[in-house]
Amino acid sequence: MSETQEITTLSDLIVAYLEQIGVEYVFGIAGGHVASLYESLYRSEQRGKIRTIMNIHETGAAFMAAGYALETGKLGVCLTTAGPGATNIVTGVAEAYAAHAPLLVITGQTALATAGKGALQECTPYQGNFPDIIDSIGMLEHCTKYNSLITHPKQLQGKLATALISAHQPLQAPVHLGIPADILRAPCSEALAYPNLSTLVTKAATTSTIDNRAVTELSDIIIEVLAKNKKVALFIGYECDGATETIMQFAEMIHAPIVTSLRGKSRVNPYHPLFKGVFGVGGHKTARDALLDESVGLILAVGTSLGQMGTKSWDGMLMNEKLVHIHHSTIYFPRSPMARLQVQGRTGEVFQQLIATLKIDLTEGKLNSLCFDNSKLDYKAGETCAANYLPPPQIQLNIPDAHQNKSSPIKPQRLMYELMRRFPAETLLLIDNGTAVEWTVHYHFWANFENYRMITTGPCSMGWSPGSAIGTALGKRGTPVISLVGDASYLMYGHEITVAVTEKLPVIFIILNDGCYGAVKHRNHQIGTIPLEFAVIPTDFVMMAKSVGAEGYTLRNPEDFDTLDFKAICQRQGPTVLDVYIDADEAPPIDQ
Predict the structure, then answer these.
(1) Sign of CA dihedral 261, 263, 264, 266
(2) pLDDT, tens digit, 9 for 90 and up, residues 476-533
(3) Which end of the chain is less packed: N or C, by CB atoms within 10 Å?
C-alpha cells in the first residue's frame, strides 16, 4: 500500500522526514496538543509507512522506543502531549540516555499566543516562576543530547535536522523537540529543505575517531608487561558491541584472563576457558581473584563507564595504576584519573591494531611464543557444561549446586537453571532492576551470551524491562523475548502488556514473585539497623494477564516447570505471564 504524500501542514513535513530516515514506529499517547501530528501519522500508516503504537503510560513508551532502537539500530520515536505527557516521559528518556539509545522525543506545547498565561497543561519555558506552568524543556535538558523549543514555523526543518543528526552521533542519545500546537497545525508550502537527511544521519552514526598515538603507546606497554612475564587482564564492559570476536582473538593470543562488568556479561561467552566471571554486584570470587592475582601487570578496562555497580563501588583492585581505560568516547575518562593510560577509539579498531603489533613482535622474537599457544586452552569442559545447561566449570559460585534445589517455594537459583534449559537459543532475556540482577549475574549462563540484556546500572529504573521487552520484540518480530521482572517492578509498568497483546508479540513476562521489594529488603537486612516493612500486596498476576487477553501460569514448585509447553509459549502469537513464587528469604549474592 503506497501513495504519494501530500504535505499540507508542518505535521506532514515532520512525518515526511521520519519516513525518509526509515522510522517504523512512533510510541506514545495521543492528546489535544499533538492531534495534528497524530493525524499525519495516521495518513502515513494508511500509505503503509509509519505505525503508531498507543501506550498506557509515557514512561512505558520511552522504554519501548529505546528497546526497539537498541535492538534494531534504528531511531526510536516518542510522541506525547503537553503537561503530564512531558513529565511522565522523563524517567524513560533518562534511562535511554544512560543506555545511549537514539531517540527522538516530541512533546506538544500550548499555542505560542497563549505562552505565559497559564493555558491548560502549559509547559513553556522562560515564562517566570508561575506555579501552574511546567518547564518541559528544562526537565529534559540533562537527559537529552539536543533539546529545543520551536518558536517559529521557519525553525522547524533546521531544528528537526539538527536533532536527528545529533541523536545518531557517538555517543547516541535521545533528543527532544517541544512543538506548540499551532505550529504543528500551521500550513506548509515548503519542499523538504534536506532531501538527503537520511544520508547525513547514517554518516553521523558511522563516524569514528581513534587516538592512534595512544594505541601505539598501549602496544608498547603491553609488550613491556608481557616481556616481564606478567599477565594482561581484560575487564570488558557493555559498550564493545560488535567487537567480541576481535577481543577474544587478542585474549587468546596472550592468554589474558577475562572479567566483565554486569552488563558486559553480554559480550563474552561465559563458557570460554579464559572467562573468570563478573566483577561487581552479584559477581564471582573467581573474577575478584583474577584481578588480585599478583602476576597481573596490566588491566585493560574496555567499553565500560566505570560506574558503581560494575566496579564494586570503585574497588581499588580494579581502579588503580595498572588500569588502561579504552572507550570510543572520552566522556567517561574523568572517572579513571588513576589510569596509566586512556585510549579513545572504537573497540574493534583498537584491538585490531594491538593484534597486528603483537604478531609483528612475536615474529621478531621479542615475545615468548609459549604465551601464544592456543592448544593450552581447554575448551572441552566448557562446551560440555554448556550442552548440559550447567554453570561454567571455571567459575566459582556462591552456592555451587543451588540450581538443583528441589524445595518450595522455588529457589531463585533454580529458576535461573530453568531459564537456561527451557527456552530456545534465540530467546532474548531482559533483566529488570532488583534481585533479578544479582541472580542472573551470578547464576545464569547462556552460550548465546549476546541475548542477555540488562538494565543500565546508572538510573537503573524499576519496571524498565516490560516496555523494553515489547520494543525489542517489535524490532525482532517472531523472536521470543523474556522480561525477567520482580512483582513490585511489574506493578509499575506491566500494564504495557496490552501493547504485546495488540501486536501479537511472543513476550514472556517472568515475574519473580517474593511479595515484597526484594532488593530493598535484602539490602536493609544487610546494612540496616531497624527492620522495615517492604511488602507488596498479594497480586494474582495470571488473572491480570488473562483480563487483557494474555495467557498466564502460576508456578510454585520446581515440578511445575514440567507441566508447561515452553515451545508453545515461545511460538504463541501473544504474551504470556509466568508468575513464579520464589523463596523470599533467599538472599541474593550482593557482595562477592
Answers:
(1) positive
(2) 999 999 999 999 999 999 999 999 999 999 999 999 999 988 787 877 777 777 777 7
(3) N
Q: Which tens digits make up the pLDDT trace of 460-479?
A: 899 999 999 999 999 999 99
| Cell numbers placing 491 | 506493578
36's grid cell: 495534528
Do residues 198 and 21 lie in contact, with contact meaning Cβ atoms separated by under 8 Å?
yes
Read off the C-alpha cell for 484. Answer: 525477567
Query: Within its chain, how far is the Cα of 376 from the centroid?
Result: 36
Work out the number of other CB atoms within 10 angstroms of the CB of residue 138: 12
Q: Give Cα 57 distance to the centre of its chain.
A: 20
Instruction: Report the share of the chain in percent with pLDDT over 70.
Output: 97
What does the alpha-carbon distance between residue 18 and residue 198 come to, in Å, rounded to a whole number? Answer: 9
CA distance 302 to 578: 36
Please, what are the domains in the chain? 10-206 (3.40.50.970), 212-381 (3.40.50.1220), 397-581 (3.40.50.970)
Q: Please give the average per-residue pLDDT across 404-409, as a whole number.
A: 93
Residue 499 contacts residue 470 (beta carbons within 8 Å): yes
The angle subtended at Cα 78 by Cα 77 and Cα 81, nearest 5°, is 145
**E strand or H helix at 322, and its extent?**
none
